[in-house]
Amino acid sequence: MGVSTAAYQIEGAAAEDGRGVSIWDTFSHTPGRTLGGDTGDVACDHYHRWAGDLDLMTGLGVDAYRFSLAWPRIQPDGRGKPNPLGLDFYDRLVDGLLERDIAAVPTLFHWDLPQALEDDGGWLNRETSLRFAEYAGIVADRLGDRVKRWITLNEPIVHMAQGYAFGSHAPGKSLGFEALPVAHHQLLGHGLAVSELRSRGAAEIMITNNCTPVWAASDDEADQVAAMIYDGFHNRLFNDPVLLGTYPEFLAGMLEPVIQDGDLETISTAIDTLGINYYNPTRVGAPSQDELPFDMKQIDGVPTTAFGWPVVPDGLHELLTGLKTTYGDALPPIYITENGCSTDDGTADQFRIDYLDGHLGAVKRALADGVDVRGYFVWSLLDNFEWAEGYSQRFGLVRVDFDTQERTPKDSYRWLASLLRERG
Ligand code: FCB
After folding, report:
1. Mind listing the pLDDT tens digit for each residue in 300-315?
2. Global pTM?
3. Where does ligand 1 bind, in terms of residues with CB under 6 Å?
4. How far is CA 252 from the centre of its chain?
5. Which structural domains are found in the chain, ordered by start?
6. Which of 11, 155, 204, 318 is catalytic?
């Protein structure tokens, strides 16, 4: 059991110790892009308060911490010689974790691309995949003696869709289907990084995909087809090539111009485990407009989080057993690398306790049904910078006062701590 965070959402210290500019700095500083103009300049000031934050994990009793490395701290321009001060920070963090008997589980890329790479096309440019592999090698050289479990990418679907297709996240491009090469180049970067990590002795490597069970709005054929298409874009576009070495048929043609010989072999380089981020199922119906081949539909009759996301713990059981059915022996053991909810500002968060309790129950049922789930990470340790929503959505087990940086454990923190104590 662990907790999960991401660099841009908690670190702050955006201009310190030689850190370069990331696309999220640029985006959040562009008027109108984030709620209230919030930025990650300070965030949870974790860059300076990391030791106290690790103590909070000790108090919780977790044995693993999933965090991400800020690429622009390590290579300010995304290429070439590393910035020693950036690497030093993660070195201290990893040592601090080991001192506390908490396994370090770094994610190499959680959306904060160095701006200099974006200026050359970002993930639309194949070159970024090569740069990502170089960066993976640099961090493995420095941390690989102590880090055993690595995650390459976080949620390439969300980065492609929100960042390049719809423009609601950095880098803020609204390319529609023209964003598809971003999927291929991220996956290629993943495959190349796997080899870099492996050659430096990594024991366990995974990719984290955001997955959702897709529910057709009705039995009508048009709704069923829309659901299949949505499933293709959201889930299979990222799971199939990694696990099977193929793209879903209806997407392969669209990707053809950017696929080069050998790419799918690289992308399907064996991984050890699969990271799954689950928040909610998705209900879709036949399109009522021309832009997209599906309509997003509301899920009625269930509670919703502060974000308005439907709470369906059974969806996690459905997702896990569904993955097993779809991929069979090609499915490696799974980690739930993110699961959690946003609640209103306050520390009496019974809503979060119920959410986590329900989802842990779903994982238990999936285990009983033969799905090999190795671990579960709560999103998130701290209230943090929730991307386009700024500081308005609070996902933490620990409340953060963003004026004073005071941390206050919520009821859910105490609930989880006693659960882990009882479990021993
Ligand atoms: C996921 C992101 C994570 C966080 C949660 C709420 O999509 O990976 O950074 O924002 O959603």
Report:
1. 999 999 999 999 999 9
2. 0.98
3. 6, 9, 154-155, 158, 210, 277, 338, 379, 386-387, 395
4. 24
5. 2-423 (3.20.20.80)
6. 155
